[in-house]
Design goal:
Elements: H1 13-45, H2 56-81, E1 85-96, E2 102-105, E3 107-110, E4 113-117, E5 126-128, H3 133-138, E6 141-157, E7 163-177
Antiparallel strand pairs: 1-2, 1-6, 3-4, 4-5, 6-7
Helix pairs in contact: 1-2
Length: 183
């Protein structure tokens, strides 16, 4: 996991206090997770139960540790940047050669491999992912990788534990002609 880096000399005392508070909360969370894991390990070795340590409970504990670390890094970034995060995402798009408009955004996995599904305005077609740009061009499209960097705000978590973001503003959008598939 990459850690958000910052220069403490460039921060206000309020920001430094908020960062220390976030770190203290993280340490408390990890201490509770360690305590739970120790209890499960003790139950296992004392033959109280034989499935709580090393199985699904341990996996859930590990996921909770990763989530806590990610939350700490995001909280620090949020404090340093003044209430927002910067996120970059990559996606595949198809542009119509004639109009230059986006004809499809993102790929899907189908029975015969990955494909683009064009919008209704472009014929509602299924276009298989190809290795050469010329293959797309024969069908009237060009494949691009669009890299979007944007300001976002954390607004909670999804049920699976991933962070939920709210869009604030675009920082940059770049497109590169490519047949590489982004997952």
């Amino acid at each position: 996991m990459t850690h958000f880096t910052y220069n403490p000399a460039e921060l206000t005392t309020e920001q430094l206090q908020a960062i220390e508070s976030a770190k203290a909360h993280y340490k408390e969370t990890i201490a509770n997770l360690n305590k739970q894991e120790d209890q499960r390990m003790e139950n296992y070795y004392n033959c109280v139960d034989d499935y709580s340590w090393g199985g699904l409970c341990t996996q859930a504990n590990i996921q909770a540790r990763h989530r806590a670390e990610r939350d700490l890094n995001e909280r620090i970034e949020e404090i340093v940047r003044g209430g927002f995060l910067v996120r970059t995402r990559r996606l595949n798009i198809l542009r119509d050669i004639a109009s230059g408009e986006v004809a499809a955004c993102g790929t899907r996995e189908g029975q015969y491999g990955r494909y683009f599904h064009t919008y209704e305005a472009f014929g509602d077609k299924f276009i298989s992912c190809a290795k050469k740009v010329s293959t797309y061009e024969k069908k009237g499209f060009r494949p691009y990788i669009q890299e979007v960097t944007e300001k976002v705000k954390r607004v909670g978590h999804w049920r699976n534990g991933d962070t939920r973001y709210e869009f604030i503003d675009y920082i940059s959008i770049t497109e590169t002609l490519s047949t590489e598939i982004c997952y």
